[in-house]
Amino acid sequence: MTTSSTTSSAASADGSGILPAELEDLVTLFDVRATDSPTPDAEREAALQAPKFGTVFTDHMARISWRQGDGWLDRRIEKYGPLQLDPATAVLHYAQEIFEGMKAYRHADGSVWTFRPDANAARFARSAHRLALPALSVDDFIGSIAALVRADIDWVPSGEDFSLYLRPFTFASEAFLGVRPTAEAEYLVIASPVGPYFAGGVKPVSIWIDEHYHRSGPGGTGDAKYGGNYAASLLPQQLAAEKGFDQVCYLDATTNTSLEELGGMNVFVVMADGSVHTPELTGSFLEGVTRSSILQLAADRGHQAVERRLPLAEVVAGLQDGTVREIFACGTAAVITPVGRLAGDEFDLQVSGGEPGELTMAIREELTDIQYGRAADRHGWMRRLA
Ligand SMILES: *Cc1c(COP(=O)(O)O)cnc(C)c1O
């Protein structure tokens, strides 16, 4: 199922597009136990034509098991399917679980790439540390993704803004009700084909600034990609949706005055002078790979790119007097999402006349051009998987 390793792609970091031998070694560690009941071609093709995010999964999953004392064992690619869990499995009670989110992109020449997987691997290890879970090596992280993508290569869609979403995760699998770090864990990667986040063109979203709920606080788990952070965001998200808003933006838990991030996306503000601002990392919200890439791309374009405390009052005043020109949110799933409306208890303001901002859309296009191999990968962000 592996594709030729010699086809060239214009977009590889070193210009060769040749798969590094070292990646082959990592993939070889995974024992491929192929499904005996793959999805029929016609059914798969239909799913790829109109993918519904997170509902359809590929035929296989990558898996590695961990036991205290033995380490990571049994690297394998196996049939995608239900897990059997003892009712006392620790994750079901104490939520010891971390995850990542990334994408595999098919380039015009058929090769398949991913974006900055080393950054995701490093963050996954940091999340593991915070949740007292075993950390996976960068090699196993990248090897598992490449092995799964190769097993399910026919599931990587082609076409504008289509990709294969990859979801690596680790959970506490020990059946034990005592409160202590698990002595057993499972690492899995599952994959789901996705189409354009905005069917029918990019549309600005409305954002509710929540001045009552926080998803994390200082010393908490906000800078880990931890399932529990999402559980904490569901009620505020539901309340905002009832008011007619698409997403919630949270404020810092200490002063309740500065922007932090959305439930699953980082936030940026573009000023009238062209400078681009995003909340500085405080340890209480997630450091997005998209966020750091945008800081770089904005600076490359000659914009001042600033990480700093971003007071809500300044953003509100800036929208009123015109010093704030654009606001956008960013993350792997939606790439860059323009914000067209910002509201809270005491304000309700249009952003960029309710239209996608100019710089927002320019950076969005540049980033997706790099990811899909339409623009030179000048920062060496792309890694070829197959
Ligand atoms: C995943 C995630 C993001 C975005 O991170 P990317 O690496 O850009 O995909 C932002 N905030 C939260 C809370 C997240 O979980």
TrEMBL record:
Q: Which PROSITE patterns match?
A: AA_TRANSFER_CLASS_4
Cofactors that this protein relies on:
pyridoxal 5'-phosphate
Per the record, residues carrying N6-(pyridoxal phosphate)lysine are 225
GO BP term, pick one: L-valine biosynthetic process
Q: Report the EC number(s), separated by commas if there are several.
A: 2.6.1.42
Q: Which InterPro entries match?
A: Aminotrans_IV (IPR001544), Aminotrans_IV_CS (IPR018300), Aminotransferase-like (IPR036038), B_amino_transII (IPR005786), BCAT-like_C (IPR043132), BCAT-like_N (IPR043131), BCAT_family (IPR033939)
Pathway listed for it is:
Amino-acid biosynthesis; L-isoleucine biosynthesis; L-isoleucine from 2-oxobutanoate: step 4/4; Amino-acid biosynthesis; L-leucine biosynthesis; L-leucine from 3-methyl-2-oxobutanoate: step 4/4; Amino-acid biosynthesis; L-valine biosynthesis; L-valine from pyruvate: step 4/4
Keywords associated with the record: Amino-acid biosynthesis, Aminotransferase, Branched-chain amino acid biosynthesis, Pyridoxal phosphate, Transferase
Gene Ontology molecular function terms on file = L-isoleucine-2-oxoglutarate transaminase activity; L-leucine-2-oxoglutarate transaminase activity; L-valine-2-oxoglutarate transaminase activity
User: Can you state which reaction this protein catalyses?
Assistant: L-valine + 2-oxoglutarate = 3-methyl-2-oxobutanoate + L-glutamate; L-leucine + 2-oxoglutarate = 4-methyl-2-oxopentanoate + L-glutamate; L-isoleucine + 2-oxoglutarate = (S)-3-methyl-2-oxopentanoate + L-glutamate
Q: What class of enzyme is it?
A: transferase
NCBIfam families in alphabetical order: ilvE_II, PRK13357.1
Q: Which family does it belong to?
A: Belongs to the class-IV pyridoxal-phosphate-dependent aminotransferase family.
What's the protein name? Branched-chain-amino-acid aminotransferase
Q: Which organism is it from?
A: Krasilnikoviella flava
Ranked from the top, the taxonomy reads:
Bacteria, Bacillati, Actinomycetota, Actinomycetes, Micrococcales
